[in-house]
Design a protein that fits this description.
This protein is of the alpha/beta class. The chain has helices at residues 21-26, 72-80, 102-108, 125-133, 139-152, 168-180, 198-215, 226-232, 250-255, 257-262, and strands at residues 32-43, 46-57, 61-65, 87-92, 95-96, 110-113, 186-190, 218-222, 235-240, 243-248. The strands form two sheets. Strands 6-7-8-3-9-10 form a six-stranded mixed β-sheet, with helices on both faces. Helix 4 packs across helix 5 (139-152) and helix 4 (125-133) packs parallel to helix 6 (168-180). The radius of gyration is 20 Å and the shape is globular. It comes from Haloarcula quadrata.
Length: 268
């Protein structure tokens, strides 16, 4: 090592190692977990997302807001692989996942709870939670993980109740529990408090904060309720007409006159 060369100046990968775009965007040498690059989704002649560059850091809790038709759910469906991208790339944890099937993305650590609860109504709470857990655990470990997930969802005592008999708020908690039971690095939630009362909203907010802070799960949360967003969000991304319109802390977003115009009711 020369007198002017420090240890930090040396590339640990070596001078001849070339990194892929995915590794440069989201690899071990970055704090970025997810990055979309010029992401486009077209349905016939309609462009739902248009050249979207969007990123989430490891352990970040980011909310995604915007008026109806802004492309929010489309973006989440592109990230999970439910929709195939028309153009652009999706990088996750050092890998290009643009062409991976949804189940492959789940195995890499991406999980999602959709807007409408998709629990199995004819199955009990315990059976619903067991479905994701049994993919990677069995025996005593599986029983322990199922019990912990049920307790975290506030459903202790409901283990043998059919999911269809739960309230809407309880079903939301159950589905978050099922998604979190997969032990993801990134959990996507599409309007998790739609149709819930104040107490149920606060319970969901507390659940999200706890999973983020204690389990280190990164979140992308779509939500229209800005009070709920303010209670959980670190950073907020505003989508409009399929494009990233603004990004920043919720206080800046709420006070931005252009955001107010397109999102908070000022636009005719």
């Amino acid at each position: 090592m020369s007198d002017t060369e420090t240890e930090s100046d040396i590339d640990p990968l070596g001078p001849n190692v070339r990194q892929t775009a995915a590794e440069l965007a989201t690899g071990d040498r970055t704090e970025t977990l997810l990055q979309t690059d010029g992401l486009v989704k077209q349905f016939g002649g309609f462009t739902a997302t248009d050249d979207v560059d969007f990123s989430v850091a490891e352990g970040e809790l980011r909310c995604l807001i915007g008026p109806n038709g802004a492309g929010k759910s489309t973006l989440l469906n592109l990230i999970t692989g439910t929709y195939e991208a028309s153009d652009g790339s999706i990088y996750y944890n050092g890998h290009d996942i643009t062409d991976l099937d949804p189940h492959e993305r789940v195995s890499r650590g991406i999980s999602m709870k959709f807007q409408v609860p998709s629990v199995y109504g004819d199955l009990s709470v315990r059976e619903n939670v067991r479905l994701p857990v049994q993919q990677f655990a069995d025996g005593e470990e599986r029983r322990r993980l199922v019990a912990e997930a049920i307790e975290a969802a506030g459903l202790t005592g409901y283990e043998d109740v059919a999911a269809s008999q739960l309230s809407h708020g309880q079903q939301q908690q159950l589905e978050i529990g099922m998604a979190a039971a997969l032990e993801p690095d990134l959990l996507l939630l599409d309007e998790p408090v739609a149709g819930l009362d104040v107490a149920e909203r606060e319970a969901i907010a507390e659940r999200i904060r706890r999973l983020n802070e204690e389990e280190g799960i990164a979140f992308i949360v779509i939500e229209h309720d800005t009070d709920f967003v303010a209670s959980i969000a670190e950073e907020v991304t505003v989508l409009h007409n399929g494009e990233v319109f603004r990004e920043g802390p919720i206080e800046e977003i709420e006070s931005d006159p252009e955001v107010q115009r397109i999102y908070l009711g000022g636009e005719s």
